[in-house]
Amino acid sequence: MTAQRPPARAPRHYLAGAALACGVLALAAFVSVDAARWWHRPVPGFLVLPNRVVPVASLPGWPTERIQDLFLAEVVEVEGRHVESSAEIYAAAAARPPGSPITYTFRRGSRTWTRTIDSFEFAGSDMLLLYGAFILNGIVFGLVGIAVWVLRPDRPAARAMLAFGLSVAVFALAAVGVYDPDPLWLRVHKLAENLAPATLVQLAVVFPASRMGAWRRRVVAAAWVVSIGFAVVHQVVLFDLPKSLAVGNLSYRYLFVVGVVFVGRMVGAYRWGSPLERNKIRVVTFAALLGVAFPALLLGMSGLTGGAVPVNAAAFTAFLFPLGLGYAIVRHDLFEIDTLARRLVHYAVLTALTSAVYAAVVILSTSMLSQAGSPLLPLHFALGAVLVLMPLRDRVQRVVDRVCFRPAYDAAAILERTSTAIGSTLDVEGIAATIVARADEAVATEGGVLYLRGKDDAFHVAGGRGVASGGAPSVAPDHPLVRLLASGQVVTWYGDAEPASAPLVLGSVPSEVVVPMVFRERLIGFLALGPRHSGRYYAAEDVQFLRTLANQAALSILHAEGYQELHALTVTLEQKVADRTAALGRANEDLQDSLSRLGEAYRELQQSQEKLVHSEKMATLGRLAAGVAHEVSTPLGAALSSLHLARDLIAEYHQSIDDPAVSPADHRELAAELDVMAKRAQQWTEKAAKFILAVKAHTRGYEAAPSSTFEVECVVRETETLLHHRVQAAGCALRVLVEPPVARLRGDPTKLGQVLTNLITNGIDAYADACRAGDIDVVVGGEAGQVVISVRDRGCGIAPENVARVYEELFTTKPPGRGTGLGLAIVRDLVSNHFGGTVDLASVPGEGTTFTLSLPGAAPDAVAAA
Q1: Model-level pTM?
Q2: Contact 559, 426 (CB under 8 A)
Q3: Model confidence over 522-554: pLDDT tens digits?
Q4: Which of 254, 624, 748, 815 has the highest CB neighbour number within 10 Å of its CB?
Q5: Taking the CB of residue 377, how many other CB atoms lie within 10 A of it?
Q6: How many Cα atoms sit within 13 Å of 298 on the Cβ side?
Q7: Residue 432 burial class via C-beta count within 10 angstroms: exposed 0-12, middle 13-18, buried 19 and up
């Protein structure tokens, strides 16, 4: 049976299930701690309930094992003293050493009798045998019921299993405390005992399937009314012993009747139900034989005999029943449950026969040896086991396998013939017909069809048997059945867990099983078969055979389709080669044409680049010449003016040589004026010469100058002098700040001057683009062996989309004639390659730009050498 995915569950189901499980475990822990108090505790030779009644509970070695007329009797006196509670009875036993004889007076109805019974000490084995089984069953019943409900909350059987499991769990766990003087646990135990039959009725009407319709609710309601009535009456008369015993016996009989009804319901469902229901009942039956038959027998005998038979032994195997029942409720895979049921039969039969043969070998070995203590006994037993037991066990296993597992056909022979037949043909229709015929030969179906995926992704009939032409329509790729088959599942239509689609119509019969053909996680087709002529359902062995057959068909069909495609490619190969050759020739011609155009474009690009560089050089030369002319003309004009005044003073001096009116003081004043004029001319001339030297030092950077250690401030000052005229012409002001200590670099100082010239020139242009003047700050500092130089302007700034491209060669946002886009590329190249440093850019449009150079400072030894 295809397993349906459980419906989407809200988190509250998990939270509720976790809360219930924690409650069951907490209750089990509490009663376990309470039970531990009985260890090494002196007790009477029997147990007593809070209402002074001796319960139907005993263990081997207890006095009650030999004196069974104490069960369900009331203790009225201890050593001739009347008692009112079970605490007084336990106190009398605890006051004496274990093994002390104590005389008790019992009463049941109108009969009263006296017995002397030795007390004993409650041992650890008594705790384990008496309380361990109750705690184990309580935990298993409760957790299994909760787990089934959490996994299948949408199914009535799961809800009934939850009620049944919780009621039995409370019944078993409360049984641990019923022997305490406190009556609370006895009341809880009796309440769960009275309600358990109603939960069993609720489970019986919905498992393995609900077929009672509207009567289901009525039957369940009636059962709950009866159980609640028993519970109320029992709580009222719990300490009225004659009435309590009568109600208790009626409750046991009611539970026995409900158990019989449950068994009858299972028998009817097995006879008239679906294959899935039958397999579920098989699993539950094996679990019931081990977990319920013995406890049910004890409970029934206790009810029929008025409580003369102890019932605590029923707890030792009862936990097996909820495990099988829960598995049958949760699982809805027909073939998985079928396999489990068959294996249970196999192991049960095999174990029974092996045990019987084992006993026979032991009896035969001991009977052949008259002396039981003979040293040859182990040898004879080992020989008997090897010669008789082992071969017989193997033969029994083969017989069970043949009866329980082997189908009515020889699957291996059919698969071998199928492989031979489909391996010798490349016809897809022939392969499909062979597969359907072999499937019919094995399982004898009323009709079968093989579907294959077409080019439109729909599934079409490729071959069939027992189906009229057109009787099996195509299946769309979005059909619900296709989604189930794509996962590799075998889809069937049995029981109450049907797939989310109707059976395929195969002519006049509906499909009953569909086997997918999957290759590399892709569904290429499927085999759909109708009902079997024998009326039997498809078993797990049939599905395994059909899977193997479908896999063979998938490989053969893919091989045939591949051969047909290869043949079609071979037929048209020459034409395709010619077409591809012609297309390759055309592509080659287009490539040659593209290469020719690319070469022309490259040459044009080179010419444009040369013109651009030449234009930039000429523009730079013009700007440099204008600056030089401005800076040199001023000091030269001043020097010429001073020289002109000096000549006038010299002429005046010549005229005054023979003039007696000119005194020596006048001659000294004239000489002083001539000295002043000469000094002025010398200063202006030195200023012009210094500027020329600065220009010469800057232009020397285009040559290969040797590296040396130099002071950064000197280069900055020389650059300031060189650009003084251009900065003034732009209306800007260059502010230089050199922070201590003295910053020194290793390299060519002219290259650093070239870097600073480009950055300061860019700042001047930024103010020009912003249509305003401002300051350009050059700050020199140092930190951690690094020399940091920042050049900042407050001009137009750089747009964010252009920040990442400013270092690209030939990229510029300046208008034609004002830049080539090479300045910043040269800056980054010199900073990184020559000085081994980095340059960072921070710009805000409309607020300005800051370039920060981080250069490694000169090593101390290099500075000392310099």
Answers
A1: 0.48
A2: yes
A3: 888 888 887 777 666 677 677 777 888 888 788
A4: 748
A5: 15
A6: 17
A7: buried
